[in-house]
Amino acid sequence: MDSIAEISYWYNLALTYIVIGITWLFDHFRDFSWIIRVAAISLSISLWLILISLYKIFIKAFRRRKAMKLEKRLTERYGDAINYILSPQAPDKMGRDEEMELLGIDSTESDPRKLLKGYKEKLCMARIIYKARISEEAAVEGSRNLHVLLGIFGLIEFLEEIIVKDRLHQKVEALLMLRAFKAPTNQWVANQLINNKRRRVKRLAMYASIMSSANTDLGYFESDFFAENFCMYDEIQLGFVLQRRKSARRKIPNLAHWAVMQKNPQTQAMFVRMMRQFNQKEYCGELEDLFQHNSDSEIIEEIARTWGYLKYTEGEEQMKDMMLTQPDGGKVAIMHALTRLNTGESLNTLLDGYKNSGSQHVKFEALRCIYWYGDEGRQKFLALKASATEKEKPLFEFFENPLTQKDLPLEKTARYHSEYGDNLYSVV
Predict the structure, then answer these.
(1) Rounded distance, CA 402 to CA 390, Å?
(2) Structural contact between residues 28 and 35, judged by C-beta atoms closer than 8 angstroms
(3) Which of 31, 113, 231, 281 stands the most exposed, by the fewest C-beta atoms within 10 Å?
């Protein structure tokens, strides 16, 4: 009996018994009022549901306890050896026989994969290796021996079988493990799921494909699926897979190209943020038209931050021209970027930001930027302080109060850090 026929059989059997039970209750309470009959049936159904729930809780607890015992047994037997093999302290490129010796497996064993008996033991071993792989110590390139370890137990083939045959949550778990293992068959595995109807599985498969692909084609970001289902999870996944590509010394795609190609401001901002995360200064020029002809303040802010962080001095004049036309958030981002560039040509623009803004927040951020804009900026700050009005004096008090001086450097509120030195700051 195949699985579908078996499910259908048990479904029909349960339905039959429910109908028999309801019929018996109606017959037994035939002489009572309809309210009592409905109450009796409701009570009986509730009792059955409670019993079924208790049974399911008991079964899950039993299975969980059994799985914990299995994990404990396998960890006691192989755990220390696995942690050592995946650690940076292990010799580079250990051979199969060396790893088997550490695991306590006889090297004459014809097929070590048979040491794990059945589906549950293999899945448990995959989880143990996965936990060791993503640990802080093993996350570095000390996991060069990983694929040999997986091959000893045949876990790559096992996880591929799960993706092809098993249920949804198991497919997702297997794909996450293969991605963490940087398995060479990842591309093939991902292709099995790219057309899956489930959005989570399809998205995960797409990013697994991007991570393992030999080229830099990101056609996924041109798809209707990406446009319709974009969320913050995409930014997390993209950052993860690009970092893995970088670790594997694969080329990082031109993210500025994809920022310009997108129509959704949120996706444009995502790619611009990724540019500064992966230091793509060589592509900053491609953002100039987007910066100059975009009405979305979020895009202006993100491009300004990226130019400031990557020291793209060619964009300084554009930022100076547009600073006063931006809302408060855009003004602050541009002033921070100009101060980070620190070319000595933007002090007047920072002064305009201070003098021509009605927002106390913008005026204060302009003062911070002037304060850190080299020696000339510090002199101008002192001149402004000497001529400050009664309304402006509270802004300067922040710079004199010993309790607040520690918060003057902008890295206290920055989203990323600079390498200026002890006295300068990171720009938001």
Answers:
(1) 21
(2) no
(3) 31
